[in-house]
Amino acid sequence: MPPTTSHPDADLHPTASGLAQATVEAHSAAAPHAGVTLYSGWFCPFVQRVWIALEEKRIPYQYVEVNPYDKPPSLLSLNPRGLVPTLEYDGKPLYESNVLLQFLEDAFPDHGPRLLPEDPYDRARSRIWADFVTSRVIPSFHRFLQDTEGGEALEGKRREFLGFLKEFAAELHHEGPFWGGEELGFVDVVLGPWGIRLWVFDHFKGGLGIPGEGEGGEDEEVWGRFRKWLRAIEERKSVKETTSEQEFYLPIYQRYADDKAQSELAKATRAGRGVP
Ligand SMILES: N[C@@H](CCC(=O)N[C@@H](CS)C(=O)NCC(=O)O)C(=O)O
Predict the structure, then answer these.
(1) How many Å lie between the centroid of ligand 1 and the Cα of residue 86?
(2) Architecture of the domain whose range is 18-107
(3) Which residues are in the GST C-terminal domain (predicted)?
């Protein structure tokens, strides 16, 4: 059958599956008054940041699935960048996942838990580490995933990525389980969607190499703390209920692993730039 669209990445599974499918169905009705509409791609980790926050805060929202590689006019008219997540609030558009997280915090102060700390210093620190995730961890995740040279080049990218994860892990609250302590917060939501996607390195790149229990040597404590964080993220209801079945992510990540993906993120990685 000839492709129905010209973008090479557009041919993906059309809808969420598994636990995420039930969440989509529960939010298929038009957004209630003072609610928001989330223009989403079920597979997208940037979307998942915002989706987790909407679920955690129990903000009324409508979920609208769009294919950002076959951009419908409804998406482009709201977001000239044509990226998901895009949000419509009171008829007005907003985008950029980290901005959206902070917007939800400001616009719905009485809904659910606050993700950012009250204390100005702690808020600023959360923003520093959220920025670290977006400017360092995610580009490095993609450099590693999109490597097709193998050998020393792949090994170097693996080491770079592990180095960033270790730097992140060293900043985690001593007990946790989350970044700032017992409660899930902004930094957790910003990295969480990539945390639950670390399986891609086992699947496509011969392993990530986070030391297992008792294997961390002088870094045992920091890696132990990272594993505890990751377990807490993986077990979080809002994370599970916004995650689809692995088999449907596979063909998408296969294209990244073969360095064939033509998304803005894949192209930016190839060109040595950061997150689009
Ligand atoms: N900086 C954006 C990145 C969003 C993004 O790259 N979304 C991807 C899907 S995961 C997208 O819409 N890609 C469409 C494209 O590459 O044309 C954010 O944080 O919201």
Answers:
(1) 9
(2) 3-Layer(aba) Sandwich (3.40)
(3) 119-252
The residue with tokens 């064939």 is 260
pLDDT tens column, 156-209: 999 999 999 999 999 999 999 999 999 999 999 999 999 999 999 999 999 999
Q: Which atom of ligand 1 is nearest to the CA of 50?
A: 20
Rounded to the nearest integer, the mean pLDDT of the chain is 96
User: Which ligand 1 atom is nearest residue 44's CA?
Assistant: 10
Banded pLDDT at 31 (limits 50, 70, 90): confident
Q: What are phi and psi of 40, to 5 degrees?
A: -130, 155
41 C-alpha to ligand 1 centroid (Å): 9
Percentage above 90 pLDDT, the chain: 95
Asked if 62 contacts 24 with a C-beta cutoff of 8 angstroms, the reply is no
Contact indicator for 43, 12 with CB cutoff of 8 Å: yes
Q: Which residue has the tokens 């980790």?
A: 45
Query: Mind listing the pLDDT tens digit for each residue in 129-147?
Result: 999 999 999 999 999 999 9
Asked if 134 and 190 touch (Cβ cutoff 8 Å), the reply is yes
Protein residue closest via CA to atom 11 of ligand 1? 83
Are 189 and 44 contacting, i.e. CB atoms less than 8 angstroms apart? no
Residue whose CA is at the smallest distance from ligand 1 atom 13:
83
Domain extents for the chain? 18-107, 120-270
Per-residue burial over 138-170, b if 16 or more Cβ lie within 10 Å, else e, is bbbbbbbbbbeeeeeebeebbeebbebbeebbe
Class of domain 120-270 as given by CATH? mainly alpha
Q: What is the mean pLDDT of residues 1-27?
A: 87
